[in-house]
Structures are given as C-alpha cells and as structure tokens.
Amino acid sequence: MILSDRDIKKVIAEGRVQIYPAPNFQEQLGPCSLDLHLGNVFKVFKPSQYPYLDLKRPVNIEDIMEEITTGEDESPFILQPKDFVLAVTKENFTLPADLMARLDGRSSLGRLGIVVHSTAARFDPGWSGKAVMELGNLGIMPVVLYTGMRVCALTFETLSSPAQESYAKSAKRKYAGQEKPQASKINKEFGS
C-alpha cells in the first residue's frame, strides 16, 4: 500500500523514516509523495581509451568517470542533449525494515526531455543514504539544472511484513550510505 500525505508525515514524525535536512511539507509534500532536491555532486563519463564497456573485463568504472561539484547556492549544471550523468539528492534518508521507497521524476522536467532515472527507482527496506539519479536529456536543447531545485519525488510503500534481511544488513549491498554518486559496480558480479 502506498502511503498518503498524512501517513508520510506520521512515519517521519515517529522517526521511522528519517530525512535530513528535514522536509518542508508545505513545499515538498504531495498527496502521496515527497519531493526531493537536486544535490551539488555529479558524475560524468570522461573520454576513455576503452572503445566499449565489457562488464567481464577488470575495469574500474570509477576511473573512466569524473566527479563535478557545483556550488551550494543555486549553481547550475548544464545537461546537454544525449548526455547521461549521475547525480544525488540533497537529502539523506533512511527507511525501516517494513517500508520501501520509489523515486519518480517530476512531470515538469519530463516535459523538457529530462529523464530523472533510467532504471534504479527502488530503495529497499533498510536503505540509508542519498538517492542517486541517472539523469538524461532526451531533448534537443541543453537544460540548466540548479542545485536545490525539486527534481524528483519519493513514494513510500508498506511491505506485507518486515524484510528478513534489510538492505543495510545484506552482504549483496553495493551502494549503502552513499553521499556522492558512485559508478556502477556491476562488474563485481562477474568477479572483475
């Protein structure tokens, strides 16, 4: 079941869902979601000697990406057409063992061609950290994105029972507690 605005406020007030900085409900709360803001750290692919990414090859994907940090005060990041960039939310959040969250892009950005996440929209019970977004520009014009703008929305769903092994306790977790965007670690699944 998806939590309503009333229930979102309740789980935050009870401390079951922790969000820092604390949300401004007047600005961020919708009928069944909570908007999050764009952070100031981005990760982009840089030119590489590799002609393609072979996930079985021992390549440190972090080495072929570059981190860009913008200023905290309304500093822009220009997302060019056909660009792909990893970005984080300004907010950190922690989920309990009986709730999961889903991240959705905002319709207003989608209408400009901005995709806020490619596939990684689910945050498992026990998640803690900043949400990483896979931003893309499908449009034909560059779009200027500002640190602190509302960029995505979280919805919260209850599980039928608390997870037996939460993300925080899972040996398979790859991105727990992230403060900055991290490159893909999928090649670790191949033993690379």
Automatic annotation (TrEMBL):
EC number from the UniProt entry: 3.5.4.13
Describe which pathway this protein belongs to, using the record's wording: Pyrimidine metabolism; dUMP biosynthesis; dUMP from dCTP (dUTP route): step 1/2
Q: Write down what this protein is called.
A: dCTP deaminase
**What reactions does this protein catalyze?**
dCTP + H2O + H(+) = dUTP + NH4(+)
Species lineage:
Bacteria, Candidatus Wildermuthiibacteriota
Q: Which molecular function GO terms apply here?
A: dCTP deaminase activity; nucleotide binding
Functional summary from the UniProt entry: Catalyzes the deamination of dCTP to dUTP.
Q: Which family does it belong to?
A: Belongs to the dCTP deaminase family.
Q: How does it assemble?
A: Homotrimer.
Which PANTHER family does this one have? Answer: DCTP DEAMINASE
Q: Which UniProt keywords apply?
A: Hydrolase, Nucleotide metabolism, Nucleotide-binding
Q: Known NCBIfam families for this protein?
A: dCTP_deam
For this UniProt entry, which residues form the secretion signal?
Answer: none
Instruction: Please list where the region (Disordered) is annotated.
Output: 172-192
GN (gene name): dcd
